[in-house]
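Peptidase S24-like protein, Paraprevotella clara. C-alpha cells?
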Amino acid sequence: MKNNFKKDIDTSNMPYANKKVYELIQKETNGNVRAFAQSINVSQQVLNRIFCIDKRNGKYPSVSNDIKKGIIEVYDKDEIWFIADIDSNESEMSKHSSEEENNKELDGVEGKAIPLLPVSAQGGRLNDFIVSVRESDCEKVVSPIKDADFAIPVSGDSMAPEYPNGSQVHVKKINENAFIEWGRVYVLDTCNGAVIKRIVPSEREGCVKCLSINPDPIYAPFEVNLDDVYGIYRVMLCLSIK
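C-alpha cells:
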C-alpha cells in the first residue's frame, strides 16, 4: 500500500469535504497518507477509501465520523470546516473578526450565537448543488438551544405547515452510526445538497426513507442511500414569521 498520493490525482470531482481532507493531508504531512492516518488514529485503508470512487455506485464515499473526529481533535477544526472555505490565515482572521462583531451585536441577548448558513434546506426533492461557503460570510443568529450547531433557512412547501417556506431551523449534528431516532425531522447533508425530511427506516439496506409533512401527492416519499449522506442533523427548533 502506497503511503503517498500520486502527484496527478484529480480532485475536481471529489465531494467538498473529501477535497478538504486531501488538501489538509498535503499541507500537514506533505501528502503522506499513512502519517496523517496515524495522527488522527484511523487506518490508512479507511482514509484512502474516501479518495477513490466506489465501483459499486460510481461515487466517492463520504468522510466518516471517525475521520472527522480525528481532524477536529488533532488539527483544531470544527464541523463548519468540512463545508466552508476557511483554510487560509486571512479567512481565519476574517472569521474571528466576524465573530467579534457578531458577539458585540448580540451582547445582552440571551441565547447562543450560531452561524446562519447561506444555503437552504430544500424541503423538497434533492437539488444538484454543493455547499461551499465561508463561515465569515455567515450571519449570526441567537438560538435558545445551547447544543445547536448552526441555523439553516427552509425552502419549499413539502414540510409545511410545521416547517413553512422561509422559516429557519436550528440543528445539531448526530452520529448516525450510533443511533437515529426514527420518525423525527432531520436535515440531511447529501452529495446533491441539503434536504429537510422526517426520517423512517427503509426496506432497502443502507438507506433511509424520507417523508414530507405536506400531504400533496407531488411530495411523495423517497429513499436516500447513507453512502451519499455526509451528515445528519437533528432539527431542534423551527422559527417562522407569522
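Strands lie at 112-116, 139-143, 150-153, 168-174, 185-190, 193-201, 207-211, 222-225, 229-239.
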